Amino acid sequence: MAEITLKGLAHAYTKTPTGAADYAIRHMDHVWHQGGAYALLGPSGCGKSTLLNIISGLLEPSDGDVLFDGHRVNELPPEERNIAQVFQFPVIYDTMTVFDNLAFPLRNMNTPEYRVKPKVLEVADILELTPLLWRKAKNLTADEKQKVSMGRGLVRDDVTAILFDEPLTVIDPQLKWKLRRKLKEIHERFNITMIYVTHDQLEASTFADKIAVMYEGQVVQFGTPRELFERPAHTFVGYFIGSPGMNFMAVEYRAEQVMFGAQPLPVTEQLKRDVAGATSTNIKLGIRPEFITISTSSMADSVPIQIVSVQDLGTYSLLTFKLNEQTFKARLPEGHPPVSEQAYAHFEHAKVALYIDEYLVEIGHE
Amino acid sequence: MNNKVPNNRAWLLVLPMLVLVAFSAVIPLMTVVNYSVQDVLGPNARFFTGTEWFQSILNNSALQAAFLRQISFSLIILAIQIPLGIGIALIMPKRGWQASAVLILITLPLLIPWNVVGSIWQIFTRGDIGLMGWSLRELGINYNITRNAGDAWATIILMDVWHWTPLVAMLCYSGLRSIPEAYYQAARIDRASKWAVFRYIQLPKLTNVLVIAVLLRFMHSFMIYAEPFVLTGGGPGSSTTFLSQSLATMAIGQQDLGPSAAFSLIYFLVILLVSWVFYTTIMNMQKDKPPHGGA
């Protein structure tokens, strides 16, 4: 059983970091609870693999502590932490059979053979590897290999956490879905903490109960997929989650109006007050493409826009339009009446989010 | 999808390759075959001899002895150079200037011409002016490669190990560098011992370069000529006379073109056969062996 706590964690690959840019991980406090299914989501180079390697012990953090159940494990090598890790490319022992591959971690711990066999057979059964047990691992397909490397983590009784580093990168799309479901099944069955690193939001939200979104070496939001979608805590989350991402407008308070360039925006009184009261000049309003209504005639609280293009994506259409020389995206439901070049957009008031210095501010919180 | 048009003129495209192979392999080889079945006495006097030369070569006891020496030599140097090469590759620095420095140092013997290697060792082992010969003598060890066959053998093997182990080491080094870091990380998480990492990760990943190393070293050592010729001249007696030297004596020294042609062909076939058997065996080892029928 393990609760993994990161306390004031930071990591730099250079020995003498001079500025924030030298840090792959910037000051981070975070708790992964026992038995959770977590995803670590972020773009390439945001530090998610670094973080994973610090948790597994392949890297020692330059600052801060990694605690397993309250015990500091910074200096413990991976073999002394009760974790398993699945890598981006399947790691298998070429010359061994699938059975020997699965038995390898147990045999390394001098487990008696009569206990190795039932355990390996059990895990092989769960992963549907039983028919392949006597094949040489070298000749398996990529997804079978990845299942074998996963299986090596599952055979050990002492494993309390499995870390996945983009494990489905080399797997065919139709098998990805199957493997992801398998992972979920394993998670429910074994009560193991799972941390899944990915840059694919769909993968993250189907696998994890809670997602940590990383950006420039920091976790900018930790929440359920729904929270990430509905209340992005940081402009990056808004932009990164959702397809397409959130639309942002840099606004200012001028002449008792919330102005987006030359365009006054129809907003609630509360929002107007918050924009007016902001001390920073970095003020942004965010609206998801799902919450923009388009009509051909002017209605209350709408702004005139120029349609650029409409893309039919099957179940919905994606509308690209321009407002104040900036490109916006809006989702039109199926069967939406056709729109002409001149149209009007209405932003659903309750869904407009306010960001000051890139972070979400609750509207009317005073 | 089958929209290929049969056109026999396409054979013309093979022609340049055919000409090249003819000049590089077929024509020279056929000349040898030609000599091996004839007794050439003069430009207009030649007799067909059939397999006579082959029989006499195979029954020649001096050549049989040389053949056994040759096989022993190849086996001994393979048994030393392959493990030693792997060992050196394993302890070589992995990155930084040290890696480059070691690589250059280790490559030096490979850059020396073969007969120069022989000369270097010939002088090195001399009792009067050679560093090794002199030191051994001063230590009271009776070492003399011109009189003692054991000393001559030991020196030739040592020379070959010095000259060629770097090649094996370099091949293995490149093989080791191509193993992704994740394999070592996974092995640590699986709590594999150092030996297990070597046995189940490094050695399997080295198989391909090792096949090349063994084949190269076998062919090289089986044809070794210049180095022992310069160092010992095949002596003392004929104790270090290897096949190539016997062949050179027969073909160039005695101008016995018929027998030496037959000899060359047998020599060539032996190398071909051994290499083929070795390669096929290794490649078969990597295949799946379905224990209960069906794969």
Strand order of the largest sheet of chain A: 6-7-8-3-9-10
**What structural class should be given to the helix and strand makeup of chain B?**
mainly alpha
Question: How do the strands line up in the largest sheet of chain B?
Answer: 1-2
For this structure, the CATH topology of the largest domain in chain A is Rossmann fold
The overall number of domains of chain A is 2
Taken in chain order, the helices and strands of chain B follow as HEEHHHHHHHHHHH
- What is the CATH first-level class name of the largest domain in chain A? Alpha Beta
Q: What is the name of the CATH topology of the domain at 17-94 and 166-288 in chain B?
A: MetI-like fold
Largest interface, by Cβ-Cβ below 8 angstroms: which chains and how many residues each? A-B, 29 and 23 residues
CATH class of the domain at 17-94 and 166-288 in chain B: Mainly Alpha
Could you name the ranges of chain A where pLDDT drops below 50 across 5 or more consecutive residues?
A: none
Helix content of chain A: 25-40%
- Architecture of the largest domain in chain A, CATH level 2? 3-Layer(aba) Sandwich
Strand-residue fraction of chain B? under 5%
Summarize model confidence as the mean pLDDT of chain B: 86
Helicity level of chain B: 55-70%
GO cellular component, one term (chain B): membrane
Domain ABC transmembrane type-1 (chain B): 67-278
Protein name (chain B): ABC transmembrane type-1 domain-containing protein
Pfam family, one (chain B): BPD_transp_1
